[in-house]
Amino acid sequence: MYSVIATDLDGTLLHSDHTLDPFTADTIRTLAARGVQIIIATGRHYQDVAGIRDVLGVDAYLITSNGARVHAPGDECIYSRNLDPAAVRRLVQPDLAGGSGRVIVNLFADDAWLIDRHAPELLVFHQDSGFKYEVMDLREHDGQDIAKVLYVGDPADLKETAANLEREFGDSLYVTYSLPDCLEVMTSDVSKGRALRFVLDRLDTDTAHCIAFGDNMNDIDLLKTAGHPFMMNNANPDLIKRLPNVPRIGNNFDAGVAHQLRKLFDLKVD
């Protein structure tokens, strides 16, 4: 009945320290070996997620930058949506980022994570992959080939940022939270759900055969698209309100996804 698993990473598949625990990794590998197609669907950068996939050791489709990029198991980029360069050049301006300069601005290019200042505290998210940023004056970037703009800051500051984006861009951009301190911006025709539909069409698989897991606001369309969606018990309360009928499972820090998969596929828990 189930032939595809699509899962978010942070707050979902990954432990609280943003790494893969052995029980989860073993569960995913076991199902992949049985022919179940794995899809990782995340806001993270492709190069970062490729490193996590390699730790898993499975052939997986990678939906990254919240759906702005899709890579096939062989690392071929099969789907790409970029922000308008003029919009990018505006999005990196300090007055739009707000927060009196406290908000950290990031750009996700095809081959790089660009950031406007050193922020070593962000590297804890990338322990498995070893992915690192490059510091530059983002106001000098031409805005070309950017999948995502990421603002990192205190939720109160990001509330100001979100209001600035709404006032200036309206619904011409896709703006969402991946974590309370991470506000993400993509072009308006991007979402994890749209990218999932693209992959399922490529696999000639109906949504009825797809399981999905998520925990935050950028997972809404992913969970709406999959025939069998599940929400983490540690999910954002706003996500719970938006999707009250989606079943809730265990917590990410207790390997909730792995335990649920073992129930669904009747795998023995040693």
TrEMBL record:
<keyword id="KW-0479">Metal-binding</keyword>
<dbReference type="GO" id="GO:0046872">
    <property type="term" value="F:metal ion binding"/>
</dbReference>
<dbReference type="Pfam" id="PF08282">
    <property type="entry name" value="Hydrolase_3"/>
</dbReference>
<dbReference type="InterPro" id="IPR006379">
    <property type="entry name" value="HAD-SF_hydro_IIB"/>
</dbReference>
<keyword id="KW-0378">Hydrolase</keyword>
<comment type="similarity">
    <text>Belongs to the HAD-like hydrolase superfamily. Cof family.</text>
</comment>
<dbReference type="GO" id="GO:0016791">
    <property type="term" value="F:phosphatase activity"/>
</dbReference>
<protein>
    <submittedName>
        <fullName>HMP-PP hydrolase (Pyridoxal phosphatase) Cof</fullName>
    </submittedName>
</protein>
<dbReference type="InterPro" id="IPR036412">
    <property type="entry name" value="HAD-like_sf"/>
</dbReference>
<keyword id="KW-0460">Magnesium</keyword>
<dbReference type="InterPro" id="IPR023214">
    <property type="entry name" value="HAD_sf"/>
</dbReference>
<dbReference type="InterPro" id="IPR000150">
    <property type="entry name" value="Cof"/>
</dbReference>
